[in-house]
Design goal:
Structural class: alpha+beta
Distance between the termini: 15 Å
Helix content: 10-25%
Radius of gyration: 20 Å
Number of domains: 1
Order of helices and strands: HEEEEEEEEEEEEEEEEH
Number of strands: 16
Length: 238
């Protein structure tokens, strides 16, 4: 009997992320570049693919109307909640550009308890011509993990920079914080989580990134939710 109860408890805990928070709403992508120009997605449910295991995906490509860049991305998200962003961009202009890529996924219903978070990123940088530099912009890191549109996790801090020679390609090594886990403490989550990449890129060069950010209720909260679900199961059987 005890083994059966433990088995049910494990199954409930595994199922909680989907059953408690439900199917996520439509994610949002925003790209900005020099001079205040920007592009904001207008995705609908038809653009989102169900991938199984409470995972959802979205893929897209974009060439800016002013011919400054061409970009692509693949976004995976779930109601755990977590966001995984794979994307790349080529600076087609004849001047250095500052690019900001932001991917956010709504959290609905809100997480009203304390949470834990963690994230990671890696990337690559390639020269299509004479070579150049990829660097952080201003006081911002290369990567932000976002909760309710606020940067809470920084990877590759301001002043990080990579320089390559003609037709060279390099890897931006993987870095992470709060993983595996996640293990960094935070409070409730009201509206959304996301990832932001911000950097400067010299003319003709290409950059690509792979980032993830995940938030979960703290372990004590998960146990309480699981216990509550078990009580409901037992009550219905009596």
């Amino acid at each position: 009997m005890m083994k059966r109860v433990i088995f049910i408890a494990v199954c409930v805990l595994i199922a909680l992320p989907c059953s408690v928070r439900g199917v996520p709403h439509i994610p949002e992508i925003e790209l900005t570049w020099n001079g205040g120009s920007s592009w904001l997605s207008e995705y609908t449910e038809d653009d989102v693919m169900e991938m199984g295991g409470c995972k959802y995906g979205l893929n897209d490509t974009l060439t800016s109307d002013d011919g400054v860049f061409t970009a692509y991305w693949g976004l995976t998200f779930s109601p755990d909640p977590d966001v995984v962003a794979v994307w790349g961009i080529i600076n087609l202009s004849d001047e250095t550009q500052t690019f900001t890529y932001t991917a956010t996924a709504p959290v609905d219903p809100p997480i009203t308890t304390n949470t834990m978070y963690g994230g990671s990123m890696s990337g690559s940088f390639s020269a299509n011509g004479q070579g150049g530099t990829l660097s952080t912009a201003g006081s911002d890191p290369l990567y932000y993990g976002l909760i309710d549109s606020v940067g809470v996790l920084e990877l590759y801090p301001a002043t990080s920079s990579w320089t390559i020679e003609e037709y060279e390609s390099i890897t931006i090594p993987a870095v992470s914080d709060g993983l595996p886990g996640p293990s960094l403490p935070y409070g409730p989550v009201s509206t959304d989580i996301g990832i932001q990449f911000k950097f400067t890129l010299t003319p003709g060069e290409a950059a690509s990134f792979n980032g993830n950010f995940v938030v979960t209720p703290e372990p004590a909260t998960i146990c309480l939710l699981g216990f509550g679900a078990l009580c409901l199961i037992r009550k219905r059987r009596t």
